[in-house]
Structures are given as C-alpha cells and as structure tokens.
Amino acid sequence: MDYDKVRGSVEPVYQTSTPQESSQAPANPAEQLKSRFPKLLQEIGIISSFSAVIGPIVYSLTVRKTAWRISHACARFLQWDIPSKAELSIIPPYHITLIIRSLISSFCLLLLWRGSNLAFSVYVAQEPVKRGQPLTQDSSDSNGSLINGLRSRKSLVRAFAFWELAKISQSFPQRRISIFKDIDRPGGPAWSQISSGCLKMIQGITTRISEYSSPSTQHQQLFINPDQLQSLPRMGIPPKEEAVVLHPPAPSTKRELVESKVGSFAKSVGNNPASGYGSPVVQQSKYYLEQARTKLLSPEQQQAVSPAHVRSTFNTYLTRFLRSGFGQPFRQTFARRVRSIAFGQPFSECVTIVDAIDALTRMATASIKEDDYGKVARDIPTIVQTFITTHQSLENLIGTLQPHWTDVEFQESQREVQDVQVTLDALRHGLGELINAFGAFAAEIGLEGQDVRAAKMIAGKKKTEMIER
C-alpha cells in the first residue's frame, strides 16, 4: 500500500460552473480529519491486534535474548549492582504482560505514523488559494512569481504552480486579464512564457515516448564501423606475420615429447577454436560422453535433464512465483510501464500535465473577450497541433506496447490505464473547446484545415474521474 499519495480532484475542462461555485474552498482540513479518522483507527486496531498475537512469540524467540545481553552489558559497564552471571528469567510467550505491551506499543506507534501521514496529506492537498485569492497574488510581482514556479526544478513547487495556474484560468478573470496585459516583461510577455512552459510540459509526453521507442544514441555510438576510422599514416614497416621467437629445441626424452604434443594441441585450439572442436580427440570425447549418457540414463531421465525440459520447468516455477503474493513486487505491470514511459519516473507528472492542458484551454478560450492585444490567437495553431500530436502518441503507446514477460496476469482490458485515460480525456475536450471557440476564423489565425479535421475527429466526451496528486 502506498501511503504517500495525496488525493486531489481535477475538475474537467468541459464542466460548466460559475466562478463563485468554482472558487469555493474545499472541505475544512479539520472536517476531513474528523471524517477519515474513524477508518484510520479501525485499520490501526486490526494491525495492532495481529501484532499482539504474533509479537510475543517473535519477541520471546528472537529479540528477548539479544536485548538481555545488550542491556546486561550496558548495566555492567555503568557499574550497576547486577551479578555478572545473572540469568534471564523464563516468561512464557503468551504472558499477559507481553500481550498488553505489544498491543499498546504497536497501537501508539501506528497511531503516530499513520496519524501524522494523514494530517500531512490532508493539509498538503489544500488548493493553492489564500483568503480567496491565488497564492502569488500577495507578491510584488505576482506573474513573475508564477512563472518562476512553472520553471522550477523541484517537482513539488512546479506541481503547485501549475495547479495555481489552472485555478487562475478557471476562477479568477481579473488575474487572467493581468496576464494578458503583461507584455513588457524581461524574457517576453507573460502569456508567451506561461504558454511555452505549459507546452513544454505537455510535449514531454511525446519526447519520452520517442526516446523509449527509438534506440539509444549512446548504444549506437558503441558500434563503429572500422572503415569509418581514419588512422594516421604508417611511419614504419608492418610487423611480421610469422613467429619471431626462436624455435624450441627438439624433445630428447619421452616426457618432453608428450609435453610438446600437448602444448602444440592446446596452442592450435586456442588460436583457432573452431578447428579444435572438429579434431579427432574432441569428437571421440563427445562420442564417449554420449554413450555414457545413453547407458547410464533411461529415456525418461534423459528427457528430464534435456535443456528444453529444464528450461520449461524453470519457467513453470518462475511463473508460479510471479503469480504469488511474494512475486508481485517483481512484476512490471502494463500500467506501471505506461506511466513511467509517458509521465516520467520516479514520480508521475500526470496531474501537472492535466493542469497544463486545462490552463491552456481555459485561458485560450477566455482570451476571445479578455485579450485586447490578440497575442493568444497567434499561439492557437501551436497549441492545437501539440494536443493532436500528444493524443496520437499516447494512443499509439497503449495500443502497441507489448506487456513485459513478468506481467503474467496481463489482459487486453488492462490497456486502459487510468492516468492515460484522464490525460486523453483532457486533450479531447481541450481540442473540442478550442475548435468551438476558434474554428469560425481558423484561416485568419493560421489554423490549417487538416488540423481542424483531426481535432474534430479526436474531440469527444468522457467523464473524468478523480486522479491522485
């Protein structure tokens, strides 16, 4: 079980809601803790009861003697009045004191761990809003602080910055207008920097998929064609091909003769292994081994020790292990591989990417009435093309990726990975909103007809479920 997940809902881009409804604060953290605490206590009670049954046995058989020796040595070192040959008292494993101590200790420890983790998860999952305004609103340069957050190298800071941008695009029209009007900024207008950051986050999906699909450049550099190497001009004569050492003297005794023959045979096999395998000695050895195997082993035993049967038996036991609970951590499931390829690793960027898609879609559609300078309309073709390319890359990945050999319980229905479906859903509805808003004057903003047709084909409706931050 993963206790580090922070649950937070992402509102669908196509969901219609008023700013007053969207800006309403979520449930109070104290209320969330109050509603989730009874279930937490129930889980802690179950685990503590199990620990009270198993703990005394483990303590009596393994831990108690070691703890006594360490404690006795420390007491003697501190010069306590303890006999040097004091023996450990005998207590049965299921003594009432051990059971009570195991129950209380495990309950308090689990309450500390799980309670602090629950409190942290509840408070971290609060929206980036302070007194009804975005977090960066109190900054002297609110747009600059937001842009710095979008460019941050820390994933947590970057995730909250994109989350705040999604909230701004959804619920704060005055802040959107300030972004559209902020054109005299170092590095370009605020909208250009924000849109480039969002597009870079979305295009990361296609980049990671392409890197996985194409062979690594580093591996290609390991294999170099010798004809392509340009050597320096030869300054001297080439080395001789024949032997350059003196011939050894002829053997004079029988022992030296045998050593010479054996040495010559070993050198010939070492210089040319293929010729050695075809020598009469090697062939005769193979013949004797085959005869011994035929006479000593029955046909059933020969079949049992054959390489194919050994490999089949090993695969059978390996499959049983992977299907068991002990082998589950060693499986590379289809969903895990897809998430690592598309959204990065070790931490998934799925929620951040969905926030970037929603923010671009909402701000682009709102720019029709709020962008007085018309700078957003110039980027609409790039946004639409990025959405289309990302959607096609994700669909091609989940449709063509082969399951790993350790994924022994894979089924074709498992190709619908939740994080991928949520991202595809955001892309589809984003394209639908953009085409509905800018399709009437696509030619004026440079949106080509093939992109419009592809966007209309991709656009659809599908309910977005809660995903976990």
Describe this structure in words.
The protein is mainly α and 469 residues long. It is 64% helix and 1% strand. It has 18 helices and 2 strands. The chain has a two-stranded antiparallel sheet. Strand 1 (129-130) and strand 2 (133-134) form a beta hairpin. It is extended and about 105 Å long.
Order of helices and strands: HHHEEHHHHHHHHHHHHHHH
Q: How confident overall, as mean pLDDT?
A: 80
Strand order of the largest sheet: 1-2
Total of DSSP H or I helical runs spanning 4+ residues: 18
Please report which band the strand proportion falls in: under 5%, 5-15%, 15-25%, 25-35%, 35-45% or over 45%: under 5%
List the uncertain runs. 16-25, 463-469
Estimated helix fraction: 55-70%
Could you tell me how far the N terminus lies from the C terminus, measured between alpha carbons in angstroms?
Answer: 16 Å
Global morphology: extended
Structural class: mainly alpha
C-alpha-based Rg, rounded = 36 Å
Number of strands: 2
Largest sheet: 2 strands, antiparallel
